[in-house]
Design a protein that fits this description.
Layout lengths: L2 E2 L5 H10 L5 H11 L14 H10 E2 L5 E6 L5 E6 L5 E9 L2 E5 L3 E3 L8 H5 L1 E4 L2 H17 L6 E4 L9 H12 L11 E5 L3 H10 L3 E5 L5 H7 L2 H4 L2 H10 L8 E7 L7 H11 L4 E7 L13 H13 L3 E4 L13 H11 L1
Parallel strand pairs: 1-2, 6-9, 9-10, 10-11, 11-12, 12-13, 13-14
Antiparallel strand pairs: 3-4, 4-5, 5-6, 7-8
The structure holds iron/sulfur cluster (SF4).
Length: 347
Amino acid sequence: MPVELKGMPIGELESFLFSEGKERFRARQLSRWLYQRFADDFSGMTDLSKPFREKLSGGCTLTLPSCDLIEGSSDGTEKYLFRLEDGESVESVLIPEEGRTTLCVSSQVGCAMRCGFCATGAIGFKRNMTAAEIVNQVVFAGKRLKDANQCLTNVVFMGMGEPLENYDEVCRVLDILLSVYGFHLAGKRITVSTSGVVPRMLSLSERFPVSIAVSLNAANDDLRSELMPINRKYPLKELIGAMRQIPLHRGRKVTVEYVLLQGVNDSVSDARDLARLLRGIPVKVNLIPFNAHEFGDFVSPPRSVADAFRDVMVDAGMLAITRSRRGNDISAACGQLSAGQKESAGS
Ligand code: SF4
């Protein structure tokens, strides 16, 4: 079996090359080719000797991103549908904003968490993605931006899947994103979002200086368990306790994601409960009006309701913003594009 080099962080590349009798600095060269110059094959790695390149092509492989579909929104958002080697598909969303360009990546094919408002949850869990498959989403977007003389500034793990249920592979990718020989992103420019896998949330935040986002969506256990079954395993008391323990690097905050569902969790009273729940935790609350899709019966509240909710949070002294919906004219809620492909594939 050829050795897959894509997805290897610098430490693994060093160990691999060392075992092949090569100097450690070769790993740095190779890492730059993989993650900074987006090489497609070994032959173009011109600062490696020809015999070394031939040896690599004989025993190693580089999985390349395979993008089946690009949907562009009028607001500049782009959605990519990637085909994986076993035929499964996942998606990423590129979101250009003033001063930054963010890629939202997937970490699993489908998701086992079954959050009631999520198109990916409706697909169910298929499998974990490999580090190569996850990082290839970043390689694809990075190369596309580089060709347009732009660059990727932020990566968020908020696409398909629960990143902390694919912990080891996500950690390898974080190593690559942070490494000076990889994508060299600052920790504050990487956010890992979780539905609330408490133990791994703490271990990941202790291991990497990245930001953590918690998808909260309800301020009481009954409603949260209904919307997000993981709440039965890690109820709010444990989740909020863990949020208090997350090491916050250089005054950063824990991000709270709260999808506003009309008539479900969007009242002023819900907002007051949320403010009470989060009291004393340095948080930034992102209020996200529900992005309607065919797999859920929820409705997005009117802007005035979202604003009233935000005002309660702000009055309670919290940083809260109502996120504008991006990619409204494409299938921009996570899992929609992939689920749509499945539907059409099956029909
Ligand atoms: S919201 Fe996230 S964790 Fe929940 S089902 Fe969707 S992808 Fe999974």
